[in-house]
Amino acid sequence: MMITNKYIRKLVWGIGFASFCFILYGLYNLMLKKRNKVIISVAGTKHSLFSIADIFMFIFMTIFAGIRLNVGSDYYNYFIRFNNANENLTSIKDVIFTSDGYRLLSVIVKQFTENEYAIFSVVAIIIYSHLFFFINKETEDKSSAFACYLFLGFFSNSLNILRQCIAMMLVINFYISFRERKIAKSLIFVVLSFMFHYSSIFAIIIIAAITICKPKPTKILLIVSILGGTIFAIFLPQIISVLIKFIPSASGYVNYANWRRNSQIRLIIAVTGMSLIYIFLLIYIIKLKDKIKSVNKNHYMEITFLIIGLCINIASIRIWVAHRIALYFYQFIIFIIPSLLKSMNEPQKGRLKKLLFTTMFVYLIFSGIFLGENEYCSYNTIFSGGKPIYDADFNRFLN
Question: How many other CB atoms sit within 10 Å of the CB of residue 131?
Answer without folding.
Answer: 25
